[in-house]
Structures are given as structure tokens and as C-alpha cells.
């Protein structure tokens, strides 16, 4: 908002400046003519062009040419200012429209209708795409969109505690397609516009997610529960898994690098044909976890316990 206020104020200053010069144009021209006349009375034309019959004509011609040059320079300067003002007015109009689109899209996320929510998601993402390669001020919109979408996922999971049975996870009534779409927007977009940001998806419940060939970079998944999810052939780089629950999750064909998996509970999880490099997989409880044909490089696989029956997630 500050940048748009600055543009508006700057435009007013430029407009006032141009009006100021325009007001003084006639008086300044008059003063110039008087000065030329005074110099003529001081025989300046004779000093410059000699005491010939053409001296006065040459003097007048020189004075007129000089005045015309000044007028031409002023006209070019004024025209450039008008063009610059037009460009800045266009920027202001564009930013105003962007603010309106942003607000309308954010409001749609609070709608109870899934179609409206999806429209809001894609609109916010499109705003982020459009501003991704803009100047540094507008790039902040990408970060804001990223934070909004991540917060929506986190807030779409409710947790309640039962005094007898411990913690019970209660899934939010948001349809899975909404969470699926946000994850696709964040991690399967062609431009990878959010890859440089740290993503907080901790303490979520991701159920029924099918996200193949995605790219997860700098994502904090600590405390998140994964149920019936597929991440085939995806990439997990510099991700953090701590105290997670995994039930029927397929990571087959994934590339996992610089990632920590610690104190997890895994039931029916497949890492078949994964490439795991420079990572830690430790102190976890495993039941029916497939590590077939895994290519390991600098993997710390220690302290894990294989159970004879599924673990309570």
C-alpha cells in the first residue's frame, strides 16, 4: 500500500512541476526578448558580427534560433514527463486492480463452497505467477500468497484430546480436493515460484493425497499425519520429518536428499526404488515398510524398530 501511495504522490509532484513551468513560460520568454533588446542597445550585434549591414539580421536570427532551441528542449522535456506520468498512472491502475483481485480471492477461501474456494486458490496463485518476475516490492506478493495457502492447510486440520484414549485426530470437513489442489499449486507448478521459500506444513493431516512427480524443497512436515497418500517419483530436498505418522503411503521412485526422518511411525509404507542421499532415517517404528531396490548414499539408517503388527498413529 505504501508503494502505491508513493506513486500517487510522485505523480502529483510531477504534474505540479509541469504546471509550474508552464505558468512561467510566457514571463520567461518576455524577459528573454527584453534581454535581447537590451543587448542590442548595447551594440552587441556589432561586437558579434561587425559593423555591416547584415549584423542586425544575423543578431536577430541568432537570438531567434537560440530561443527556438530552448523551446524545443522544453517541449521534449515536457513530453517525456507526460509519458512518464502516463506509465506511472498505468502502474497505479494495475496495482489497484491487483489489490482488488487479491482481496476477492482471499475472501473466496472463507466460502463454504468448494468451487468458490478453488477459484480463490487459483486466483491467488495466478497473482503470484504474474508478480514473480516483477520488481522486488511486488515479489512480496509471492511470499504472502505462499503463507496464506500454507496457513489454510494447517488450519484445515482439527485436533482434540480424549482423556482416556489420548490424542484423537479429527479431519476437517473441507473436501480433499481443496487440500489436493493447494499442494499441487505449491509443489507442482511449472515455474517453481515457491521453491526458495521455507514451507511450514507441520501438524497437519494429509489424507488421500495423490501428488506424483512433485517437488518438495525446504518443507517442515514435523508432526504431520499422512494417510493413504501417493508421492510417486517426487523429490524431497532439505525436508524435515519429526514425530510423523504414515499409514499406507507410497514414496516409490522418489529422490530424497538432505532430509531428516526421525521418530516416525510407519505402517505399510513403500520406498521402493528410491534414491536416498545424505539423509537421516532414525529412531522410527516400522511395520511393512519396503526398502526394496533403494539406492543409498551417505544414509544414516539407525535406531529403527520393525514391529510385528501395525503401530497406533
Describe the structure.
The strands form 4 sheets. Strands 5, 8, 9, 11, 12, 14 and 16 form a 7-stranded parallel sheet that branches. Among the domains are: 2-103; 198-306, E3 ubiquitin-protein ligase SopA (Pectate Lyase C-like), CATH 2.160.20. The chain has 313 residues and is of the alpha/beta class. The chain has helices at 2-41, 44-49, 55-108, 114-131, 136-155, 176-187, and strands at residues 157-162, 166-171, 199-200, 205-207, 215-217, 219-220, 225-230, 235-237, 240-242, 245-250, 255-257, 260-262, 265-270, 275-282, 285-290, 295-302, 305-306. Helix 1 (2-41) packs antiparallel against helix 3, helix 4 packs antiparallel against helix 5 and helix 4 runs parallel beside helix 6.
SSE diagram, text form:
Layout: H1 2-41, H2 44-49, H3 55-108, H4 114-131, H5 136-155, E1 157-162, E2 166-171, H6 176-187, E3 199-200, E4 205-207, E5 215-217, E6 219-220, E7 225-230, E8 235-237, E9 240-242, E10 245-250, E11 255-257, E12 260-262, E13 265-270, E14 275-282, E15 285-290, E16 295-302, E17 305-306
Parallel strand pairs: 3-6, 4-7, 5-8, 7-10, 8-11, 9-12, 10-13, 11-14, 12-14, 13-15, 14-16, 15-17
Antiparallel strand pairs: 1-2
Characteristics:
elongated; 7-stranded parallel β-sheet; 6 helices; 24% strand; 6-stranded parallel β-sheet; alpha/beta; 17 strands; 313 residues
In short:
With 313 residues, the protein is of the alpha/beta class. 48% of the residues lie in helices and 24% in strands.
Average pLDDT across residues? 80
- Our estimate of the beta-strand percent is 15-25%
Q: Rg to the nearest angstrom?
A: 35 Å
Helix content: 40-55%
Count helical runs: 6
Q: So, CATH architecture of the domain at 198-306?
A: 3 Solenoid
User: What general outline do the C-alpha atoms trace?
Assistant: elongated
Low-confidence stretches: 1-15
CATH superfamily of the domain at 198-306: E3 ubiquitin-protein ligase SopA
Amino acid at each position: 500500500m505504501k508503494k502505491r501511495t508513493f506513486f500517487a504522490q510522485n505523480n502529483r509532484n510531477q504534474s505540479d512541476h509541469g504546471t509550474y513551468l508552464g505558468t512561467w513560460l510566457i514571463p520567461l520568454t518576455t524577459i528573454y526578448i527584453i534581454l535581447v533588446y537590451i543587448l542590442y542597445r548595447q551594440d552587441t550585434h556589432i561586437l558579434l558580427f561587425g559593423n555591416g549591414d547584415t549584423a542586425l539580421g544575423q543578431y536577430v536570427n541568432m537570438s531567434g534560433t537560440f530561443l527556438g532551441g530552448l523551446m524545443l528542449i522544453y517541449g521534449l522535456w515536457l513530453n517525456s514527463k507526460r509519458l512518464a506520468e502516463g506509465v506511472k498512472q498505468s502502474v497505479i491502475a494495475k496495482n489497484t486492480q491487483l489489490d482488488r483481485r487479491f482481496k476477492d480471492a482471499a475472501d473466496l477461501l472463507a466460502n463454504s463452497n468448494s468451487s468458490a474456494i478453488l477459484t480463490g486458490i487459483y486466483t491467488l496463485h495466478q497473482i503470484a505467477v504474474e508478480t514473480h518476475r516483477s520488481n522486488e516490492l511486488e515479489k512480496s506478493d509471492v511470499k504472502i500468497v505462499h503463507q496464506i495457502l500454507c496457513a489454510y492447510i494447517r488450519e484445515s486440520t482439527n485436533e482434540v484430546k480424549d482423556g482416556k484414549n489420548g490424542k484423537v485426530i479429527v479431519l476437517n470437513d473441507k473436501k480433499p480436493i481443496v487440500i489436493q489442489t493447494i499442494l499441487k499449486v505449491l509443489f507442482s507448478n511449472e515455474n517453481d515460484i515457491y521453491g526458495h521459500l521455507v514451507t511450514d506444513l507441520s501438524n497437519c493431516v494429509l489424507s488421500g493425497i495423490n501428488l506424483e512427480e512433485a517437488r518438495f524443497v525446504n518443507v517442515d512436515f514435523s508432526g504431520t499425519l499422512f494417510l493413504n497418500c501417493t508421492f510417486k517419483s517426487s523429490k524431497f530436498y532439505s525436508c524435515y520429518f519429526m514425530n510423523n505418522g504414515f499409514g499406507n503411503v507410497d514414496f516409490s521412485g522418489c529422490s530424497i536428499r538432505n532430509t531428516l526422518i526421525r521418530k516416525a511411525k510407519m505402517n505399510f509404507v513403500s520406498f521402493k526404488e528410491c534414491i536416498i542421499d545424505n539423509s537421516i532415517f532414525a529412531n522410527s517404528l516400522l511395520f511393512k515398510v519396503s526398502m526394496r531396490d533403494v539406492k543409498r548414499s551417505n544414509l544414516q539408517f539407525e535406531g529403527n524398530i520393525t514391529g510385528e503388527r501395525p503401530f497406533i498413529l
